[in-house]
User: Fold this.
Amino acid sequence: MNKYFLMLSILVCQLVYGQSQDILSIRKFTNEHKGQLINEFTKFLSIPNVAADTAGLHRNAAYVMDMMRSRGIDNVQLLNSSTPGTPPSVYGEVMTKGATKTLIFYAHYDGQPVNPSQWAKELSPFEPKLFNGDIYKGATNITYPSDGNYDGNWRIYARSAADDKAGVFSILNAFAAIKQSGLPIGYNIKFFFEGEEEKGSIHLNEILENNKALLQSDLWIICDAAIHASGKKIIVLGVRGDAHVNLTVYGSKKPLHSGHYGNWAPNPAMMLAKLLASMKDDNGRVTIKGFYDDVKPLTAAEKKVLQDVPMVDEQLKNEMGIGANEMIGTSLEEARNLPSLNINGMESGNVGKLATNEIPSTATAAIDLRLVLGNDWRRQQQKVIDHIKAQGYYVTDHEPTDDERAKYSKIVKAIPSRSGYNAQRTPLDLPILQQVIAAVKTTTKEQVVIEPTMGGSLPLFIFEQYINGKTVTVPINNYDNNQHAENENIRLQNLFDGIETMASLMMMK
Amino acid sequence: MNKYFLMLSILVCQLVYGQSQDILSIRKFTNEHKGQLINEFTKFLSIPNVAADTAGLHRNAAYVMDMMRSRGIDNVQLLNSSTPGTPPSVYGEVMTKGATKTLIFYAHYDGQPVNPSQWAKELSPFEPKLFNGDIYKGATNITYPSDGNYDGNWRIYARSAADDKAGVFSILNAFAAIKQSGLPIGYNIKFFFEGEEEKGSIHLNEILENNKALLQSDLWIICDAAIHASGKKIIVLGVRGDAHVNLTVYGSKKPLHSGHYGNWAPNPAMMLAKLLASMKDDNGRVTIKGFYDDVKPLTAAEKKVLQDVPMVDEQLKNEMGIGANEMIGTSLEEARNLPSLNINGMESGNVGKLATNEIPSTATAAIDLRLVLGNDWRRQQQKVIDHIKAQGYYVTDHEPTDDERAKYSKIVKAIPSRSGYNAQRTPLDLPILQQVIAAVKTTTKEQVVIEPTMGGSLPLFIFEQYINGKTVTVPINNYDNNQHAENENIRLQNLFDGIETMASLMMMK
Assistant:
């Protein structure tokens, strides 16, 4: 193939697919290094990264530092909060001579807790395994190919394969690809990898404040969450906030025989069921007083981009196997712009083979509150607690004493999470956002979806509040990555495309 | 102490405490052999006896046979059902020359399932441990005394320490005590120890039918369950029936991120909460259509003995730490004479440290139905299922197919247990019942409580139906024995008193 034919081909590609020559060079790098990249990635996934495992988190941070140093990133270091024991963030930078602007790329290396017994039997959260597709569609485990010939539809299953080690992977490999391809970087590039995101970024404010000068930038680019369910790339302007309330309802101090005391002793599982049931109506609308009152409406410009988001409700219902959505008459995009209340977990006594004829002594639920602009996370928690009181409950923050048990017939321990945060949204008219949109468009022939609010949550308000940082979220993961649950996975093509997306931003003009 | 003083003492005891001389001889035997008896008992408790462990059940049966043979009981053998794999019952007999009547003593050697993680941390279900009292009142673990000097208030903690290896213990040691004390037995005595009671005695009918002649008797004496909460001995005329329904409600095929899909994808935990909540009103009364319709009222005589049952509602509320009972205005004894619906267990997603920000894919509940005379167990299960249908659910007996998922927005898998049974009650005017009451009265100075219906369930109707057997239940366990739950225990004095109770019945005239 001669030089002119190559140049012509690149030009044709660019015209047909909207992809720039620089991006095609990045793709070439990725294609030639797949084996090496996946090998480094699976080693990363093998290091346990749950909040309870401090040593594991430190090993992850050290691994990230090694990856950064091996790519020639400068000034690599751990950034600590003022609170001892906090998992550190990992920082690095590449300063560009004469640059007028600075971009800082964010991802996090910690992961959600795991309950290995809930994972598919051939999977183990910290033993990344390769499958020839989606296990929910019958894919099977295959060995890692020694020739590096990976198919884009294959998937790797492990905790944080998507959320958010895929973010660290795509950012660091985008930089490697640019550097090794000899492509130009116009801005200063900084790297910031957090270690406490899944625990609610409790100490992120301290880390930012302790390192204000180091972390100055014109834009934080958050590489987390998933692209659009249509498969189109997505740019997200904001996120929902998040807070939790954990509930424990009390029956007898000891579990009782359901024959001897059935329908005489109160059953906390039934009490909890009635309490939770009181929180939503049959149309999925939250019935807690004032729950939707504080919501700040979308602007006209935001409403407009929202209208352009492809509708995937029917596709998702079909894929998820659900006959109807929860809030009748509300689309997915509309639902994401409302505060939500969800039961993450519920437990009392035993079910299945372990079930016994007992009246359990307690029943527990974990409640998740998502918030939109206008909501205050502590106020939203308080609304839930006020609702519980209105159902006749005595609300306490400790195990009930004998006196409390004697005095109150309905007792709940309600623990609002200390780590919550509000929603955030970057204004659509921020000039640098247009550069971001233009950059991502160089990587795809498809529509780039602009979403005012992501359903999920990230602590983006912290950047605004503590170092006046602007943020935009640019996800790369497949939407069906099972993040936060069992069988988390990343589709390999999303990893490879993610390198291109991040590279386009690093080369932003 | 001379002979006359001893005789005088015995006479005084008998007058003051209502205890016969024969019973005092039994007590002497027990006091002199405590070490040996407890040693044999703890070995018995060390053999796992859950339904899933067939080999363990066979080892238990073999141990019971050894205990019987070592006491000189004749014709010891295993009785099998016609269904291969059923745990055998253990039989033995002592025929009395010239006896006109036959008593058959029943207990069961199998136990409820265990979830060791729910037990107190110093306990393990099949490592019986001795405590100097009730662990819920701060008792501590002590070593088994080498001198056999056991205090009656000490407790042994293990699965089946009460339910129902204590029954096997008291029956076999009553016989040993009578024999070694040279006391007279007037009737033929048979022994029948079941191995499948906690699984619902599914094959008991086959065992009875296969051994009709061998098992003929004038009365089955069922040694199971607990004495009255007042501490008084109790004779129980009947039991509630029992059946179960297991429910699984379906959301998305896979767990989802509660941020991305919260309040759009249906949450099965919330669906289950609403479904369960619909089954009872706020006064604890079951709202399922026709739930109380079939109940056969108590006779005048039964109502009379019911009135004589000591009221312990306030004592129990205090001990259990509950401010109010579930069915407002209904006493414990009244509640036991009504059919009941209880949630034994409920599970969806994860709580506590394992909680993640997910929308679970399923939610499960185990429901227990207790029945009184007049209820039919299959009809009662059907009422629950009809109620679920009336809430708009599509009810299936299998994992929903994709077509079913697409067609129905509310899907529940409802599995009615195949092993249920009806309530039973022996008529109060059966002549031999008067002998039973008189016999137990020889062992105590206190009131002997007569209860028309025990709250718990035993498959007593099977004896009636398949071999025309009459039954009476004579419990020995402390009421706070945690049977069917974690931290099951037996108070030692109840074991020792149980020997006296069973002996009084074997010596019945």
Q: What stands out?
A: Chain A touches chain B through 109 residues (CB under 8 Å).
